[in-house]
Specification:
heterodimer; A: 359 residues; alpha/beta; Rossmann fold; 2 domains; seven-stranded mixed sheet; 20% strand; disordered N terminus; B: 348 residues; mainly alpha; 14 helices
């Protein structure tokens, strides 16, 4: 323990000295590793928007570089290492699968600072950051719950990991907070990005009676399918309205610009510490995109009101009582779910149909 | 002439690259430097080149044995995944045992796993005459789901916050590193040994000879009494074993654990490597190094020149396109003939 503290102090001092020296000289070189091509919407697109916002906010003090379409697995470590070796003093690794490679490279480059998105491993020079996507999901669930006529929403999902289950469950709870009859059907496609299967899954859900479709996958295919079949959609990652102008009710949007600016500024100032950032509405890391014209005024007001409550911390999407599918109480009345429980979520709440893929 | 066409293709790819980089407003020489020199201008770069070439080489040599006999195994990607699962299961099951036998056992299990997966299309082919192109390809998706199930279920890291991944392997389950400060590991020796064995089998053994005959002239092979069943079995199992070893190389090498995906498509890229390498061991070694360099160069071009990542795929595509085109022009002569006249006399 003591050794850890001493190490951290030394490292902090080293980082401060380095940052001080850097401020006097050349701008800080910042690298980004993206898991997919940037494209025009989706997970990586939002990270790149964040990069650009940060570069603008710290104009003159930083230069940025990115490598896109880096597969998780053996290749990631090489790219991260290459960025660290080529003079980048701060490297953002923006996908869960980069966690172990980031930690490995961080060991070899103790003077370089790393920030890893959505993971759980930290080190003296590795901080982590993530967004409370489920907060935005809850709000979009309210919109879906009020707009559905069939009381069935369809959800195209990637992998049954906690982050995705938080989204499904928060969306369901949001729907049922305004429409207790609402149910959610889920199709797992076992891929983050597979437009063909995303579209097929969306079509299957629509055929099963869903009149609102949402997705936790990377392409706009589900939204496009909804547009084609003339049902509603709720977008994810980016504002998907341009891919389905009539269908898209709203989107749960990720915003990384502020957190990138904050972390980078700390590194520049030499005050950076390996922290664990998990921010939501309050920290400006998630939002809901502008609502569709079809959404009535009272729903818009309810969304605005609920958002205020979330920002103020007066409301938690997983406010007890929360029951899972089997009726077991996961959060008792009068309590909100703690972060420790959120982080390992592995069940559906009441209102989600079907079974989770077996372990 | 068949051996000249890869060189012609490479030259044409370079030439087209020159035009491409100029059109993108980059200095072509600087771009070539970033693409082909910079990635390997230090020992780490060379180590990375070999590391990335090893799985391509392994899959390609195994496939070549089948391809030469007309056994079209398209499923190396799936056989690789099953090899990785088999090895990973041992690594997790004996985590911390620290036995020196663990790694050799993993290597054997990986090869057997890949063979078992390749045995399915071989059986379907020999028993029901099912097309192995289809069955081996479809089994790629089954293998991917199998791997997904393994990392979501039985081998999921209990300390991993429910993320789909196994625990990180113990040192005893990893190939020892060869070069301090790099990721180059003893897995490259396995790749080299398999390539050498593949060369010996294809060029020097009687079994390889019968397979070549089967590929060149099916009827002649039958007349000579060479078993067609045996050809299918050997072709598929060789591909499966080599791909399985490539899977072991990934999980016991640079990855060091089981993930939902252990290969960025090596099994498919190896088909290109096998053909660019003319289905010969030496050619496959060179082709896999070139392919590996294209991957590394693409990253380096992004970092130094802000070129898009699509440039990698573009170069691979051009290489294959020019190779096929060169083959066509070597095998066929282009004749410009006047269009056939309408038979006017007959009408009159």
């Amino acid at each position: 323990m003591k050794l850890g503290i001493v190490c951290r102090m030394l490292l902090g001092a080293a980082a401060a000295a380095l940052a001080g020296a850097a401020a006097a000289q050349a701008p800080l070189k910042v690298g980004f590793v993206y898991v997919s091509p940037i494209g025009d919407a989706g997970w990586t697109y939002q990270h790149d928007q964040g990069r650009q916002q940060m570069e603008k906010a710290l104009a003159g003090k930083v230069t940025t570089k990115y490598v896109e379409n880096v597969p998780e697995g053996a290749d990631a470590e090489r790219v991260i290492r290459e960025l660290a070796a080529s003079g980048h003093r701060l490297v953002y690794t923006t996908s869960f699968g980069y966690m172990n490679p980031t930690i490995k490279v961080a060991r070899q480059f103790p003077k370089v600072i790393f920030a890893h998105a959505t993971g759980y491993k930290k080190a003296a020079n590795v901080g982590i950051y993530n967004a409370r996507f489920y907060e935005a999901r809850y709000l979009t669930g309210i919109v879906a719950g009020r707009m559905t006529k069939s009381n069935v929403a369809g959800y195209v999902a990637a992998f049954p990991i906690p982050e995705v289950l938080q989204g499904i469950n928060a969306f369901t709870l949001g729907m049922r907070s305004v429409n207790p009859k609402a149910e959610v059907k889920v199709i797992w496609i076992n891929s983050w990005f597979d437009p063909g299967r995303e579209r097929e899954a969306a079509n299957a859900l629509i055929a099963q009676g869903a009149d609102v479709v949402t997705h936790h996958t990377d392409s706009p295919a589900a939204v496009q399918a909804a547009e084609e079949k003339k049902v509603y959609a709720v977008g994810y990652h980016s504002d998907m309205s341009k891919h389905g102008p009539n269908a898209t009710l709203t989107s749960a949007v990720h915003l990384w610009g502020d957190v990138y600016t904050r972390i980078t500024r700390d590194v520049l100032a030499g005050t950076w510490k390996p922290t664990d950032i998990w921010g939501g509405f309050r920290q400006g890391m998630v939002d809901v995109a502008p609502l569709n014209k079809a959404v009535p005024r009272d729903v818009a007001d309810l969304v605005a009101e609920t958002k205020q409550a979330l920002v103020a911390g007066k409301l938690h999407p997983f406010q007890g009582p929360v029951k899972d599918q089997s009726g077991k109480v996961r959060v008792p009345a009068g309590q909100a779910m703690g972060d420790d429980k959120l982080a390992v979520m592995d069940y559906y709440v009441e209102g989600v149909q079907g079974q989770l893929p077996k372990k | 002439m068949r051996f000249v066409s890869p060189l012609v293709a490479a030259a044409l790819t370079f030439a087209a690259g020159l035009v491409l980089f100029s059109a993108l407003g980059r200095d072509p020489l600087a771009a070539f430097h970033a693409f082909f020199v910079q990635p390997i201008d230090d020992w780490n770069g060379v180590a990375e080149l070999a590391l990335k070439a090893a799985p391509l080489m392994l899959c390609a040599i195994g496939l070549a044995i089948g391809f030469r006999a007309g056994v079209w195994n398209i499923g190396a990607e799936g056989q690789l995944a099953v090899g990785a699962i088999a090895a990973g299961w041992l690594a997790v099951g004996f985590h911390g045992a620290g036995s020196a036998l663990l790694l050799p056992a993993m290597v054997a299990a990986g090869a057997l796993g890949g063979m078992a997966w390749a045995a399915i299309p071989a059986f379907l082919k020999t028993r029901f005459n099912a097309n192995e192109i289809l069955t081996s390809l479809m089994l790629v998706y089954v293998a991917a789901l199998l791997l997904s199930w393994v990392v979501h279920g039985p081998l999921r890291d209990p300390q991993g916050f429910n993320f789909p991944q196994s625990k990180e392997f113990h040192d005893a389950a990893l190939y020892p590193l060869l070069l301090e400060g790099t990721r180059l590991n003893a897995g490259v020796f396995v790749a080299a040994a398999v390539v050498a064995a593949g060369w010996w089998f294809m060029e020097r053994s009687f079994g390889g000879y019968t397979m070549r005959v089967a590929g060149l002239a099916d009827a002649a092979a039958r007349y000579a009494g060479f078993s067609a069943r045996r050809t299918v079995w050997v072709g598929m199992l060789a591909g499966g074993a080599a791909a399985g070893l490539a899977g072991v190389g990934e999980v016991a090498g640079p990855i060091g654990q089981l993930l939902p995906s252990v290969s960025p498509g090596y099994g498919f890229a190896a088909i290109i490597v096998a053909f660019v390498g003319r289905l010969h061991a030496g050619g496959i070694v060179l082709a896999s190094l070139l392919m590996s360099l294209l991957y590394l160069g693409g990253e380096s071009a992004q970092m130094t020149l802000d070129l898009p990542s699509a440039i990698t795929g573009l170069f691979q595509g051009m290489l294959l396109f020019f190779l096929l085109a060169a083959d066509v022009f070597i095998s066929y002569r282009l004749r410009i003939a006047a269009p056939a006249r309408a038979p006017r006399e007959a009408a009159a």
